[in-house]
Peptidase M13 N-terminal domain-containing protein
Amino acid sequence: CELPKCIRDMKKSIFASRTKSEIILITVVIALTIITLTLIILLARSRASDALGQQEEVRGCRNQTCITEALEILRRVNVDVNPCENFHAFSCGNVEPLSDKHLKYGPFTDMVENFRTRLEKKFSEEILPSDHVLVQTEKRLFSACMNETMEYVSFKTLRDALIFAGGWPVVEGNKWNEVNFDWIQATFTLRQMGYLHSTFLQLDIVEDPKKNDGYIFQVSIPAVDDVYSKHFSTEETNGFMADVAIAFGAEIHRALGEMTQALEFLLDLQWIRTNIEEIQDEYQRITVDQLQKKHGSLDWLNYINQITRTTPKITGETYILFPSETSMDQWLSTVMKAPKRLQANYLMWRVVEDNLPFVTSKLRSEKIKPKFMLEEEQTRAEFCIDILRENFSPSPIDVLYVREILPQGKVDQINQLLGYFKEELMVLLDNITWLNDDETATAREKIEEVSISFRAPDEHVFLGMKYNVSSGDFITMLSQLKKDNLDYLYGLLRESPKDTKLAWWKMTGDSSFHLMAKNEIEISPTILQGFIFNENRPNYLNYATMGMALKNILYKLLGGSTEWANKVACNLKEGIANFVLYHALTHMISAKVSYSAYKRWVKDHGEELKLYPLDYTPEQLFWMSPGEIYCHYTDSIFNSELQNGTYNNVLKEVLNNNPQMLEDFKCGFYIENKCTLY
């Protein structure tokens, strides 16, 4: 039946047989019942609302990452200290100070070590059919490098290579053929075999300064590294070089005499190279034909084509970069005036020196201590990985691993964060008082045009890389890798730097740096993990720790220098050292920029949950989260300041110059400064 009729029928059924008094009583009962039910419903709703509010109050981020972050903050914080009075003691009060012996073992060190351990496992993994062909090649090389017993085989390989390249006079003695030796031809042979060939001349491929998007070959005077002075006196160096020559078969008296001459020649070349560096002459951009007319002592077209091995070959009309005439004349004159025997002894010694780390077992069996071959604290695995990184462009395992730990979603979050940082730097420029108009304009241009890189190249970077590394001892495999890698790099001459720039990408350590000349920021993927950035936790933690990690970069983008740093020295207490002034300024700038960037993110995306079960607001947690960094500052000099309280003063200055922090912690006071940063 229809609802209105039903209601009428119900009314008739209820009241038809009732007296007036009964009807009144029933009406009252019904009314009381309705009122009671209404009150019950309202009360239930009120309690439900209260319960929901309480649930909302305790609700927070409860995933495993958030719980770990909350426990870490609880571990550090001393709740008995008022953050308004001593923020460092509040935030780091329960952290045990590092002893002098463990100064370097802070959070950054732990993070980098964890990263290296995971990456080392990638190099050590079994070669799989599904691995990229370049990954298979790199794994084979790593395995060969780790096998120290192969060093005995490598020793023989190296000795044979020296003979093929023209011979090592000190070893061959009177049998060495001086007539047939030519250092230029020996250079070509070494290049073809994949050994060090840039002893007397160096040829690189660089971006063309006169061409917006192109490469150019650059002839330069090679560096003359004197690694011996760090470990030996001059007399000990002579002895070491002679001992190595003897291990290769030289007679004792000949080794002592001829290697002494080789060392003297090295020191002469080093002196010339140092003087040339001090002059700082600019490179000439000239054609090969023009170069040949000015410097006819070498066949430059043949030299460049033999070294680069490019197809098609360059012509006399090809432009190259070349040092000043005075510098090159002085250098080549010294090289060419040297006796052939001296040229060969020095040339072959540099080849041997370059390969000493791979034949140390043989040398140790000869009771020679090549103590500068491996860093004292570097493991064999770290050494092998560094060698491979140096000779791949870039390391395939590095590339694929970084792409694994930086998936596209995380990359997008980091790019968004960096975008907010740049926007807030621009806002800050309008409010700071310690830059003049020209400095502000320069900083604004720098911020707008800065290029930021932090991820590995895409896999297409491997398309032009061809490594024909066969099995064998490590030196044989490594020399083939070096040859193929140089062929690949030289072959980029006719490519666009815009498309191939990442061929020079290398995995860096725990640092980020600003390349001033190119206005580029390189952020190591190593630091974009762990306590610095984690995509599974709230952004108030990520923005705060990224601000601390990039504080030096933010400072430099504003044109940071000692000169203008002195303009704001009034913010620091008298007697604080200059380097503490620098750290205070970087702290203040990064705190301002990262906090404002986060608040802008909140405005665009909404409020975030607190960390369960902590009773701190997201804003308070923002200021507390970088404690993982500043509670264990890992700079040895700065750690000494931690002990005498100077760093505590720095944090107080950051607090004093940041009223927003005081407001977030509901501090009822604000210490007036003598001057204002922003």
Summary: The longest helix spans residues 20-58. Residues 150 and 546 are 45 Å apart (CA to CA).
